[in-house]
Amino acid sequence: MLIAFHKPYDVLSQFTRELPEHRTLADFFLPKDVYAIGRLDRDSEGLLLLSDEKPLVDRLLHPRHEHPRTYWAQVEGVPDESAMQRLRNGSLVIQGHLVAKATARCLPREPDLPPRTPPIRYRAAIPTAWLELTLTEGKNRQVRRMTAAVGLPTLRLVRAAIGGFLLGDLAPGEWRELAMEDRQLLGV
After folding, report:
1. Is there a single domain that holds both residue 148 and residue 169?
2. How far is CA 55 from CA 36, 78, 109, 135, in A?
3. pLDDT tens, position by position, 18-67
């Protein structure tokens, strides 16, 4: 079984509650015996896959497979070409690790996303921009660390796609089992 879930903001990518006030995957009536394939941190949103198929986990997560994951990041500030090139060329060192090359582009407009609750902080004097980054490795908080390294702190982060499978119109907290054609879009 393979499931696509739209993980809302402020939800942990695990089933076990560490503190009573934490929301977890257990709050969303997912089928038994599925586990998250990878993670999205508590303050990130978007596409999270869950499965009970162990070989699939390796295929989607292990860096040797270079499986692409696409993120939309709302950043504080407006990137110049130098910052964008640094995000793309694999020259950033994050926690002692040289990150792999990525694709990065500025989105021409804000993506069509449901409002986040609570909303991001708003500062009238500081503009924001939306970036699309596609990575083939998944280090802890990598997108946030990459944007911060080029002087563009991330305000909101949404995983928009894994492989060719898009989050699409799944609302926050909704999930669905994937059909064979969905698996083909994932490349598995």
Report:
1. no
2. 13, 41, 38, 21
3. 899 999 999 999 999 999 998 999 999 999 999 999 888 877 877 777 78
- Domains: count for the chain: 2
Token pair for 152:
């563009």
Question: Residue 61: phi, psi to the nearest 5?
Answer: -105, -35
Q: What is the DSSP letter of 23?
A: B
Q: Are 14 and 80 in a shared domain?
A: no
Are 109 and 186 contained in the same domain?
no
Residue of 10, 27, 41, 43 marked active site: 41
Per the CB < 8 A criterion, the answer to whether 52 and 34 are in contact is yes
111: Cβ contacts below 8 Å, ≥ 6 apart: 72, 130, 158, 160
Same domain (yes/no): 4, 26: yes
Strand partners, 165: 162
- Provide block-wise average pLDDT over 10 residues at a time, the chain (188 residues): 97 93 95 92 96 85 80 97 94 89 96 91 88 90 95 97 94 96 88
On whether both 79 and 142 belong to a single domain, the answer is: yes
**Bridge partner list, 158:** 45, 72
Asked if residue 185 and residue 127 are part of one domain, the reply reads no
Q: What is the CATH number of the domain that holds 4?
A: 3.30.70.580
Does residue 41 carry a catalytic annotation?
yes
